[in-house]
Amino acid sequence: MSLSDPDHIAPMPGKAQRYPLGAAAAVLYGTLILLALTVPRGLVNWSRDLDPGMRQTVMLDVALAVQSAARTLGLDRPYEAGRDLFLKATGKTED
Amino acid sequence: MLFPTISFAVFFAVVFPLTWALNSRNTCKKWFLVAASYFFYAFWSVGYTLILFASSVFNFALALALDSLPDGGARRALFWLAVAGNLALLGYFKYYNFFVAQTMNVMMSLGLPLNLAFIEVALPIAISFLTFHALSYIIDVYHRRLKATRSLVDILLYISFFPHLIAGPIVRAKAFLEQTVRISSPYDVRLGLSVFLITGGLFKKVIVANYLSTDFVDGVFRSPGDFSRLDLLFGMYAYAIQIYCDFSAYTDIAIGVANLLGYRFPENFNQPYRATGVQDFWRRWHITLSSWLRDYLYIPLGGSRGGRLATWRNILITMGLGGLWHGASLNFVFWGLLHGMALVVERMFGLHAPAEGTTKPQAAADSLPRLRGRVGEGARGALAWFVTFHFVCLTWIFFRSPSLEATQTYFSTLAWGDTGWSTTMTPLVAAMLVIGAATQMVPNRWFEALEAWYDRASLPFQVALTFAVIFLIVVAAPGGVPPFIYFQF
After folding, report:
1. Chain B CA closest to residue A88
2. Most buried residue, A54, B24, B47, B407, by CB count within 10 Å?
C-alpha cells in the first residue's frame, strides 16, 4: 500500500480489539516484566550506566534484587543458554 | 534516547498510561505530550530544546499573521520571511561550513585565495525533520489549504512529537493537526499492527542493520582498496539492505508508538527494492520525503507544466536539493542528481509510471515500447527490476562513502581492481543479507494476515508472543545499539 496523498492517511488495517487499551497495556507491561525477569543483567547494566545519584542507587538496588530473584528461580537460564549458543554459533564474544 | 533501549522502554511505560489517563482533557494531554517530547529531545541536548521551542513559536506566530492578512504583497513578504527563517536555521547549523568550504575551493581554483571562518557548532539532532514539518505548516497556511491554529500547544506538539521528531516520518501539518483537535479514541489503537511494526522494527535495526554494519559494511567502506571485488559487490548490496532496515525500522517503530498513543502516521516505506523504475522506487522509499519534495518543491517550481526542458530542470533541482538535504557533502548532491538524471531518462524514453499515484510495480515496465512484444511480461518486469535495483545500489555508494575520493576508490576497485574474488563475508552477514532481502519479497497480505491473527488471539498468547520475539532479539543482539543512520540528517 502506498500513500499517494499524504494529507489523507488511509485507515490502518487490522481488527479493533474489544478493550484496546487494556490489551495494549497488558502486552506492554507483561512483555517488560517478563524481559526484566528473564534478562535481568540488562536491567543491571542499564542501572549501572545511569548518572550517579539517588536515582541510580535505587534503580541498581531494584535491578540487583530482580536479578537475585530471577537467578534463584532459574528464570535467567534460558537467556544465558540462548546467548551462549548464539555466541558459539557465530564465533562472537560479549562486548 | 534511542528506540531500542531500556531507557526508551521505561520512558514509554510512563508516557503511555499518563497520555491515556489525560485523554478526556485533550489540552492537558497535549501539554503533557509536549513535555514528554521535550524531555525525550533533551536526552541529546538540553540547550537545543530552546531551538525547538523558538522554531515552534516563530512558525505559530507567522502562520497566524499569514492567516489574518489579505492576499497581496505584505502577505507574500511575510510568507517568504517565514520560509527564510526556517531555512536560515537549517542553513546555519547544517550547511554554513559546507558552503564556506565550497566557496574557498572555488576561489582557490580561480587563483583568488579566500580565508573564511568556519563555525564550531554541533548539528542539532532532528533539525532537518523539524524544518520539513515547520515548512509544511507555513506553506499550507499560505496557500490556504490549512487554517492557522490558534492553539500554541498544537504547534508545539506537531513539531516536537517524540515519535516523529528525530527521523520522521514527515507528517503533514493538516493530517496531524486534525488529530490534535479531537479526543483520541482507544479504538484507534491497532494493537496487532503496532506490535508488528515495533517488533519488526527492533529486529530490522538491532539484528539485521547492526550486524551488516559492524561486521561488514563499515570495514568495506572505510578502506575499499583493501577488499576484494566480490567483497565490494556484496558490500554494496549489504549497505542497500542495511540502510533500508535501519531507516524503515525507525519509522516503523515511530508509527507503532504513535498509534499506541492514539495518533496515526503515514506509511514511509513499501518494499522499495521491488521497484521496477526509479520513479517507482521513490514512491516506495521514504514516501513522506518524496511526496513532500513533490508537493512543496517540484510542483511550485512548475512541475511538468512548462514543457519537457522545464520538467527536466525541475526534476534535477528537486533531486539535487533532496540529495543536499541528506547532508552537507558533494556526495549527497551527486547521489540526488544521479537519481534526478535517471528520472529524466525515464521521462525521455517514456519509461516513467504514467499517472501520479500509480504504484503498481508493472507500471514502468508496461511502458517499455521497444521491448513490448519481444519478450514476455515476466522477463520485462525482471529486467526493469534488475536495472533499477542495481542503479539504486550503485548510487548508494555515493551515499555511504565519506568523500568523493573514497567513492572513486570504491568504484575503481569494484570495476578494475586486482584484489581478487574471495570474500571476508561471515555466515552471519550472509544470513542477514538473505533475511534483509526476504523483507522485500514477503507479500504485504502476509503481514496483514499475521496482524489479524494476532488480534484474534487470546491476551496471554499476545503477551507471550510479543515477549518471545523481543526475547529472541535480545539473545542475538550485539552489545550496544549505534544511532540510526538518519539521525545525522
Report:
1. B476
2. B407
